[in-house]
Design brief:
The protein is elongated. The chain has six helices and two strands. It is 34% helix and 6% strand. The chain has one domain: Herpes Virus-1. The chain has a two-stranded antiparallel ribbon. By secondary structure, it is mostly helical.
Length: 167
């Protein structure tokens, strides 16, 4: 007895729509070339949860390269810095969360040029002038006892940083 022929449309439709991700509540589909039953987004999320320090190191290195900064930290140096300063436990997106700040903005991410500060402090440091640095940003005047020399509406606050401040 002969088998009935399947139409080519059904075969093509089955190849066009791959299976769904095996992760609970995920609606993404697994690609054709995937060997895993989990979609790429869920795999990346799981890797991030298993390796939080490696993930934050890679993200910091990627952002530094994207902004054109030199990045000379190794993962072992970063790991020691993050654990010693408390950055690993307190990083996040709130104002009191920790962020990595370059002490000298002209230099890149090097072990002797980074420190741990809160996000609110790091955003405030953008308006601090550095000795010998000329930029096209808003003019910042040093704070004086006599405010008569301050221009109209210009920022008059400058924070002086200590040279040997720990992370």
């Amino acid at each position: 007895m002969k088998r009935p022929r399947q139409s080519k449309l059904k075969v093509k439709a089955a190849k066009k729509y791959p299976i769904k991700c095996a992760t609970k509540f995920c609606r993404n589909r697994v690609g054709k070339a995937e060997k895993s039953p989990i979609c790429g987004k869920c795999r990346a999320r799981r890797w991030k949860e298993r390796h939080p320090l490696r993930y934050s190191f890679n993200k910091l290195r990627y952002r530094a390269k994207e902004r054109g900064h030199v990045f000379k930290l190794t993962f072992e140096q970063y790991q020691r810095f993050a654990l010693a300063s408390g950055y690993a436990e307190n990083k996040g997106k709130t104002a009191e969360s920790f962020s990595i700040d370059r002490i000298d903005p002209e230099r890149g991410y090097e072990l002797d040029n980074i420190r741990c500060v809160t996000l609110s402090e790091n955003s405030r440091l953008r308006f601090v002038t550095w000795p010998g640095k000329s930029d096209n940003g808003p003019e910042v005047h040093e704070e004086t006892e006599d405010r008569a020399d301050a221009d109209d509406g210009d920022c008059v606050y400058v924070e002086h940083l200590e040279e040997n401040e720990p992370f």
